[in-house]
Write a structure and sequence with these properties.
Blueprint lengths: L5 E6 L6 H6 L4 E5 L9 H11 L6 E4 L8 H11 L3 E4 L5 H11 L3 E5 L2 H5 L1 H5 L4 E6 L1 H8 L8 H13 L6 E2 L8 H14 L3 E4 L5 H8 L3 H17 L4 E3 L2 E3 L1 H14 L1
Parallel strand pairs: 1-2, 1-8, 2-3, 3-4, 4-5, 5-6, 7-8
Antiparallel strand pairs: 9-10
Helix pairs in contact: 9-10, 11-12
Length: 263
């Protein structure tokens, strides 16, 4: 499935917003059947999505958790529709991932948002069908009983480290609750980029441009990367320095990745 920096949620209970979400310019649209839909509206949300399908390219469906009474019906829907991926909340084990992969035939995005899920990251990352990890920061803070955002930094590191170790794409960062607080959205997106996340969940179209500008390589980073590649090519394998710093293989590879991201 397509990757990208911005992943925009749209409630499954608001079918009039489906087309608007697709047209908003997000890299990926996530139709939410879980938190955004009240219990009494779950069945209607599934029917909304079925009636509107296909709503556009690169559409993901966030289903209800494995222990939810809605889980089986959500699997049937996704098996019938075939979205780009299925996002599984409260991912806590390899069995959770495999149940979704087997039940839908779709790639699985494991939304890890509980202490148990983080303890089991090793087995989750090796589960057949897992395509990527996603950070459920708000739910994790609730599960841990913390209001200090810095207390979640170890979990951010865990997601990035396990993703790299298991050959997965860089994980997706969680949402910023503030819709119109540009400073907060920008701060969260820049932190996600610094920690090594490859994209961020968004809850409103107004967040998209802020997240994209914060997470994509800056003009300064692109200029640096081009200078590194040029210096490395001119050196033809010999040791070389740039701005007083040694250019070795990891530096060159970082420059190449920055240029690829910029493209």
């Amino acid at each position: 499935m397509k990757s990208g920096l911005t992943w925009l949620f749209v409630p499954g209970s608001r079918p009039e917003r489906f087309a608007k979400a697709v047209a908003a310019g997000a890299d990926v649209v996530v139709v939410d059947l879980e938190d955004a839909v009240p219990p009494e509206g779950k069945a209607a949300a599934r029917e909304n999505l079925r009636a509107a399908w296909p709503i556009g390219p690169d559409v993901v469906v966030r289903i209800n958790a494995h222990n939810s009474p809605e889980f089986d019906a959500d699997l049937v829907l996704c098996r019938d529709l075939g979205p780009a991926a299925v996002m599984l909340p409260k991912t806590e084990s390899a069995q959770d991932v495999q149940a979704v992969a087997d039940g839908t035939g779709c790639p699985v995005l494991g939304l890890v948002e509980t202490a148990r899920g983080f303890v089991n990251l090793g087995e989750i990352c090796t589960a057949p069908g897992l395509a990527r990890l996603v950070f459920g920061s708000i739910d994790l803070a609730l599960d841990l009983g913390t209001t200090a955002d810095a207390a979640l930094d170890a979990s951010r590191s865990d997601l990035v480290r396990w993703s790299a170790a298991c050959g997965l794409p860089a994980p997706l960062d969680g949402v910023t609750p503030s819709i119109d607080d540009v400073a907060a959205i920008d701060r969260d997106a820049r932190r996600a980029k610094a920690w090594g996340f490859g994209g961020k969940l968004c809850i409103h179209p107004a967040q998209l441009a802020v997240v994209r500008d914060a997470m994509r390589p800056s003009a300064e980073e692109v200029a640096w990367a081009r200078r590194v590649i040029e210096a490395d090519e001119q050196a033809q394998g010999a040791a070389v320095s740039l701005d007083g710093a040694m250019i070795d293989r990891p530096v060159v590879e970082r420059a190449r990745r920055l240029l690829q991201a910029a493209e």
